[in-house]
Amino acid sequence: MRLAELSERSGVSTATIKYYLREGLLPPGRQVNATTAEYEEEHLRRLRLVRALIQVGRIPVATAKEVLGHVDDESLGRTMRLGAALWALPQPPEPAEDDAAVTAARREVDRLLAEVRWDSVRELGDLSPVHRSLVTTVATLIRLGYDWNAEELVPYARLMREVAARDLDFLETHESDAEKAEMAVAAAVLFEPVLRALHRLAQEEESARRYGIV
Amino acid sequence: MRLAELSERSGVSTATIKYYLREGLLPPGRQVNATTAEYEEEHLRRLRLVRALIQVGRIPVATAKEVLGHVDDESLGRTMRLGAALWALPQPPEPAEDDAAVTAARREVDRLLAEVRWDSVRELGDLSPVHRSLVTTVATLIRLGYDWNAEELVPYARLMREVAARDLDFLETHESDAEKAEMAVAAAVLFEPVLRALHRLAQEEESARRYGIV
DNA sequence: CACATCGGATAGTGCCGCTAACCAACGCGT
DNA sequence: ACGCGTTGGTTAGCGGCACTATCCGATGTG
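YS: structure for the whole thing
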């Protein structure tokens, strides 16, 4: 298909598609001649994924490019691709001011990880961007005056562990041979909005039950 | 305290504080005379909350204003304040293209809510922004080619229900009289990054256990 | 062979979250 | 009483980001 058809079938304007091509989010089509390029179904699928990452996952274009770079990195095995792609996903900005709150937060997070015995991530520690962002967020909560401690997070951690186990089960079940890595990224990025929405819906439901009003 | 001190103790530049005052995110200080205004501890706390909403929660300034407006709305009771504030929290943009994917998504979400018996939110249906955003996100997943169905979401929904119950327990325990509504909003907004981080950490941990590599 | 269409390149737009610069009023030390 | 540094408010501008409008020469098409 040509660019115009790609645009029509995806609902993305040709100008935007050109922008994505320019930014390297979308691999170039097969150049037929100087004025015509041919795109495949694969391009359409990739374009939908890009839109999902950017619109639903709210991932910056530059980051999306990086993530997709890992997805396309054939030098990595399946697991590594997934890991590298997830690693590249954006985290809350780290003010990195090493004050008392951050110290306290780090201590509590460490205690939490010890308590639930997540030894793999404990070994990685600050190397993992996710770990750092968790510390930062907890530090913010502490600064706001929450008397935060690891014990209160333990049940949440256990629940999220269950969720993560289901995530991986899901991936294993649904992976087709064709686009394994893309699926993994899509699942990682698009599951979060689903979880977030379910979380808020659950809050509405629970609140309505307890207090009668929403 | 004066603006300069408010700036120093919060780590936010005076220019930015002035900006927040202008935008109505921060109530004006007590005007002593034409060139001096006096701010209280309350302003410091509110300022920290604003920063948390914007930086950690990534909430747009205009939305944060709206949310805080509900928090300050004394015509509402506690529960209503919380509800209104949560209601105003931003959702993924809704393309609102009522195509086959959206229809299918709506059907699956309805089935899900029936299955887990969240009758309160079911009654509200499309009225709730959260409900709409869930439908939109699921529609995106469907468009990407996931053969999505309600059954697969059920365990997630149950888990998030447990999480939500804990959220509300937490609120009930920790609420001090002084800043109930602010705490509720902070919890709602700042809990999500914590959950997200725990989720990803759990994925790393689980993946490391299953496949040995992260 | 006229003409619409194609894809690529470039420069511009609109929004958003600040931020630098300015200003008159004030308060404090001498 | 007076000079001068500081205060809080106002205005205009900046930088980044995600597009987007426009132009262009090459090309396929009736």
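YS: worth flagging: Residues 100-211 of chain B form one domain.
IM: good catch. Also The longest helix of chain B spans residues 180-211.
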